[in-house]
Amino acid sequence: MVKTPIKVIVRTRPTVEFAYKNININENTGHIAINIPKSADQGFVNHQQEDWGFTFDKVLQNASQEVVFDICGKELIHSALGGYSGTIMAYGQTGAGKTFTMMGSQIDYKYRGMMPRCISLLFQEIEARYEQQITVGVSYLEIYNEMMYDLLAGGDQNTGLAIQEDNNGYVQVKGLTIKKCQTEEDAIAQLFEGETNRTISEHKLNKASSRSHCVFTVHLEIRSRVESAEKVIISKLNLVDLAGSERTKKTGSEGRTLLEAQFINKSLSFLEQVVVALSEKQRDHIPYRQSKLTNLLKDSIGGNSKTVMIANIWPEKNQLEETISTLKFAQRMMKVTNESSIRVNLDPQVLIKKYEKEIKDLRQELAMHDTLANRGRIQYEPYTPEQQYKQQQIAQQFLNGELEDIDIDSLRQVKELFFQFRNLYRNLVKDLENKNYIPRTEKEPDVSKKKSDQVKPVDSVGMEENKYGFGLGKARKDAKPTTNIENLVNIPKDEFKQVDEKAQQEVRKESQITEANKEQTIEKRIVNVDKQQAFADFKNKEGSQINQQILENINQLKEKKDNILSQSEISNTLKTQIELRKATIAQKQTNKNQEEIAQGIIDEEEYTTLKELKELKKQLKQNQENIRQLKIEIMDIDSNINQSKASLVQKFEEHFLKKYGLTLQDINNPLVNQKEEEYSINDPSEQDDVDQDALAYIRAKNKVTQLQKARKQEKMHK
Which of 425, 429, 445 is nearest to 437 (CA)? Predict the structure, then answer.
């Protein structure tokens, strides 16, 4: 168990109206100082606080989405794959940029937020961990007006959802849909699908304000391919986008929006009460159950999780009060400590197989021990019906007094004898109840006597008491089998074995003949068929057009990749020159006095440097746009190559089947691997992770967009 305090990162919203006079941020030390001068309207005696100081783990001012993810998300992804659950939550006032931080913009790939970036890195790490089998599932939950909604449910989203704890104290939501995802594209598509079902509305401070708390959870089940397979490590990653606290006077909320604001502020107040209670060491009771939000986040706040909170602030003068409130809450959150541990479960199906193997091994070991102890061949398998019948006869003879003692070989025999005693007793009781009881003499009738000399009651056949036992009683004449059972009993066991062996030999001969005929038929058709030569001939003749198209696309792909490399070198050169110009300007500013800075005076050299800096930034922007267009073209060409390869192999399979009457599987054909090697490009840039991530992101977005259009058309038709 690892004790870790909640990590708090403060992110400022970029704004042109930054309150430089009131807010001072030191990114190196993580300190934020805020000053609000006393108002003269309050009179001469004014005890209003003027200065506030806060220190956090990290302060990010005007930081990009990539920088925020590197600091807040990467560590938790690796922890989750190591078995430790994690939580990333965004907190702040409405309009401060929480949803942009967590989800980002769906229009531009580079502005994607914490959620899609976490999914991309997660699947990259899973592909690299070949020694583990990792199952990924996702869920998306919304808390709107203290009601929970399943954003991934197709129909009714509010059916049977309830927060509960398992026997180990872990929080889970009963009835919540968990979608299994095999690829990054599947997971991002589920994220987009849930995002379209979220509740948003407009007010004065935010045109697309989230009116609910949302929790996107990635569920992981990790099994080792090297060690014991029955051990399953369970972890999860909660990505929480909290609704923003708001003041109705500023937002101008009315009607339904006002009611939503009341529920949001109420739940955030309960969240603050939980944080305050956790920060006090002497508190025995933590009020988690006051709201759905605090109950759901019990593991994340003060529980079994590694948690990072991103406090989003809006550093403008008219938002100072809300900024101070957010920073106070964030500072309290830093006092909360979580105890994170690895959660290990045992897979029952794998355990059953393991125990079956152990039982088999133990039986073999017992058999070896009995042989060494000269106990003969004692069986430990369940009794066969013939052996059960024999034990029934022994039990009957013992009850009739014909046997004074029973030779016991094993505990298995003792159990079987007791079982047969019980069957005999039950059958006797049943005969008495049916008034069909025939008093038994001390001696059983002689089996050697003829059937005509024995008693022949007209009773119906006895009922079977247990699937391992035998029914007692005698059948009617018309219920007798045509074969004499006594004759079957007297047949020696050797004859039974001989008959059985002959039958098995005949079956084997027939199966061998059938298999031999099949093999001969296939061998006749395979003779003189060189699959690789056939594929080469097909590419030069019937498949020449597709083959030529593939080669042209590969040449285009190489050219595009060469262009990207050259453009990247230019981009790096421009960035270096920009940094040099910035350093020159910063040095100029340092050498100026306060009066020159206040008046904004610049000399000719500084003006020239600023002009050059502006031109360099313009060139860099154009260069990056060229790189982006090249990457899009590369993705299109790569997609065309893959489609052409698949089409070529499919047509060859049809041609091969038509010409030789064979499938590629009949001759263990490696053409699928061969065609990949034949058209492969020995260029390390082909495995560009960024391109692959962007492709999965774009495909997922297009899939969800098409699904939305189909739903709209269906509604219009209705």
Answer: 429
Q: Which of 466, 564, 530 minimizes the C-alpha distance to 671?
A: 530
Instruction: Take residue 368 and report the two structure tokens written for it.
Output: 């070896």
Query: Is 29 assigned a ligand-binding role in the annotation?
Result: no
In order of 99, 244, 250, 295, the CA distances from 240 in angstroms are 10, 12, 25, 14
Q: Which of 60, 15, 55 is nearest to 32 (CA)?
A: 55
Q: What is the pLDDT of residues 114-163, one digit of tens each?
A: 999 999 999 989 888 878 889 999 999 998 888 888 888 865 566 678 88
Determine how β-strand 147-150 pairs with β-strand 162-165: unpaired
pLDDT at 316 over 70: yes
Query: 99 labelled as ligand-binding?
Result: yes
- Is 96 annotated in a binding site? The answer is yes
| Banded model confidence at residue 209, pLDDT cuts 50, 70, 90 | low
* Annotated binding residue 303: no
Residues facing 184 on adjacent strands: none
497 marked ligand binding residue: no
Annotation-wise, does 97 bind a ligand? Answer: yes
CA distance 660 to 4: 68
On whether 573 is known to bind a ligand per the annotation, the reply is: no
Q: How far apart are CA 522 and CA 660, in angstroms?
A: 10
CA 522 from chain centre, in angstroms, equals 44
189 a known binding residue?
Answer: no
Q: Which residue has the higher pLDDT, 306 or 490?
A: 306
Contact 279, 6 (CB under 8 A): no
Query: Identity (one letter) of the amino acid at 221?
Result: E
